[in-house]
Each structure stands twice: as C-alpha cells, then as structure tokens.
C-alpha cells in the first residue's frame, strides 16, 4: 500500500471587484473572412485571415497600455476599460481588462454583464504576414492597440470568457478532524524538518 502524501499551503486568492473581465482576444489559426484592403486585395474584396501563435508576444508585459471601447468607438469618450494583463497561450491571446468608473464604463459593464456585448474585436497594426499555400494571410506579428466589446466579431471564438465577481466576506474554516490523516509518522516528521 503506497504512502499517501498530503500537502497543504496557503493560497493567496485575488477576488474580483465585479469590474474585471477576462477575454479571448484572438484564437490562433482561426480564420475569418475580412474585406479591409490589407491582404493584398483592394478594400471591399474578401480574403481569409488568421493569426499565428506569438504574434503579440512582444506586448504581453504592456497590457497597461491597452484600452477597450464598444463597437470601435473612437476617441477618449469611447474608452470604457483599460488593460490589466495579457497572456499568449498555445491556442490564443487572452487578456484581462477592468471597466472604468465612468458613466460610459458603467454602461458598458452592464451591457457585458447582460450578454449584449459578449464578443471581442481587436484593433491592431499589422507588422509581418505571410501568404499560406491556400492563399490565406497569416499575421505573424502585429501591435495590439485596443479591443472592442461587440456583438458581431470577425473571429467567432473572440469572446468574453468571465466577469469576475466580488468575493464574499465569509471565510470557510474546515475542521482539522476532517483532513486525511498521514499514514507514515516518520515521513511526516521528515517533512517537518525539511520545512
């Protein structure tokens, strides 16, 4: 019978403030039909576009420079949130944003909370791209300027993933008698010595 090892540690949990939203900005390799004139085609002529893993890796430590708006509204009045964090994973670029405590920020937060704006669109400057064998354009490097909360995204998986809620003040304390008891007292003594 193998010895059961029990480990515990104090976790520092950061509760949400009710104004922080986690989003998938763009899924790598997902294709969208676009007509922006930046794929070797004239404006209005459709072409397939996708994003390569790592296209935004140079920005992951600069999330604080990003803003969010609603439906690509221009200007300072259109800004409803600011960037907190960016994370480039194998499958997608993810971000966390906090809604501003302004009338427009409050309205946008409520519309996201109610599911009116459940999708994300990105605003970026292309830097490097390549044409794939099937003619699609793969963006390999770009500069993310902002995101927009929207209802009709170019990329279907660019979505609001979670709105972090406010944590309750209640603290749950578990009775130590309910913990699994170690089977090997010598192992427990050794673990205490090692810290």
Concise overview:
With 195 residues, this protein is mainly beta. It has helices at 103-113, 185-194, and strands at 20-27, 32-34, 47-51, 67-70, 81-88, 92-99, 119-131, 137-150, 160-164. A hairpin with a 5-residue loop joins strand 7 and strand 8.
H/E element string? EEEEEEHEEEH
Beta-strand share of residues? 25-35%
Task: Identify low-pLDDT runs.
Answer: 8-14, 167-183
Helix percentage: 10-25%
How many β-strand stretches?
A: 9
- Rg from Cα: 23 Å
Query: How many alpha or pi helices?
Result: 2
Structure classification? mainly beta
Report on the biggest sheet: 9 strands, mixed
How far apart are the termini? 26 Å
Q: What gross morphology would you assign?
A: globular
The averaged pLDDT comes out at 84
């Amino acid at each position: 019978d193998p010895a059961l090892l029990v480990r515990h540690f104090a976790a520092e949990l950061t509760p949400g403030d009710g104004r922080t939203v986690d989003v998938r900005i763009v899924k790598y390799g997902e294709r969208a039909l676009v007509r922006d004139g930046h794929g070797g085609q004239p404006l209005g002529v459709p072409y397939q576009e996708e994003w390569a893993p790592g296209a935004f890796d140079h920005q992951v430590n600069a999330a604080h420079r990003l803003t969010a708006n609603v439906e690509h509204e221009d200007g300072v009045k259109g800004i409803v949130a600011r960037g907190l964090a960016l994370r480039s994973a194998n499958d997608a670029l993810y971000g966390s944003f906090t809604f501003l405590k302004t009338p427009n920020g409050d309205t946008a937060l409520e519309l996201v909370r109610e599911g009116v704006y459940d999708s994300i669109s990105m605003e970026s400057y292309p830097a490097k791209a390549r044409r794939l064998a099937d003619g699609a354009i793969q963006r390999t490097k770009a500069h993310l300027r902002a995101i927009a909360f929207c209802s009709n995204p170019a990329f279907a998986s660019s979505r609001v993933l979670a709105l972090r809620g406010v944590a309750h003040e209640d603290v749950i304390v578990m009775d130590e008698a309910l913990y699994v008891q170690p089977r090997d007292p010598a192992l427990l003594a050794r673990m205490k010595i090692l810290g």
